Amino acid sequence: MENQEQEIDLRELFYVLLSKLHIIILVAVFGALCAFAIAKFVLPVKYTSSISIFVNAAGENQNTTDGKADNADLTAAKSLAATYIVILEDDIVYDKVSELLVQDYEISDLQKVFNVSYENGEPYISASQIKSLVTIASVNETEVISISATTQNPQLSADICTYIANIAPDLLTRTTHAGSVESIGNAKVPSAPSSPNVKKITLIGMLAGFVIAAAAVIIAHLIDNRINIGEDFKKRFPDVPVLAEIPDVYNLDKGGKK
After folding, report:
1. Is pLDDT of 204 > 80?
2. Model pLDDT for residues 83-99, shown as the tens digit of each residue
3. Would you say 130 and 115 are in contact if contact means Cβ atoms under 8 Å apart?
4. How far apart are CA 258 and CA 250, in angstroms?
5. What are the residues facing 180 on neighbouring strands?
6. E-state strands within 128-197
7. DSSP state of 61
8. Residue 233: phi, psi to the nearest 5?
């Protein structure tokens, strides 16, 4: 009996949603338009560049078998890569990147991206600001480390990756006294923005509008205590007998009134 009542209630909710489908669709379209406008005209356009460096745990004395690296060296390289990542996230790396940025860029251009400070009359960018734009991670837990930077300037993104890749070899070998690293290719200047994803944000806005509108319709229906038809009365007062129902007569053509 309870399953039957639940089935009836779900069916009722379905018909309620169906009756308000035009409103739900309008809200969904409105949500999509708002999301599109925000993604297209409000959110900043950002560009991502990346470069990869290869970790060689054995250095120049790598053991080889038929020209292939020994398994022990590869395992050691994977372990060493995790240590290298920790070192590359130290402020000393980003302080050096700051020096290179101030050297290669106009301060006015840097101020569009960073909060440039001055110390003893010399401009500098805090390490935390640069670090927030950089991601350093192992590629699928291999001996390859990926360095990526995301900024509003495509050339700046590529240069930050290049700076870190150039700083890495000397710093890592001097700090760990083990292994070596080598850049794989160069950081390319991105030709297309990496964010915002206008299509994805628009779709999310549309789905959010649809869900919010549908939820509002369901909530409005559930909290509606009015008795609209005889069936509503029977459901709410099952023990009270219904003697008669007064029909709702509304016919303008014949001068009827509600």
Report:
1. yes
2. 999 999 999 999 999 99
3. no
4. 5
5. 56
6. 134-138, 144-151, 180-184
7. G
8. -65, -45
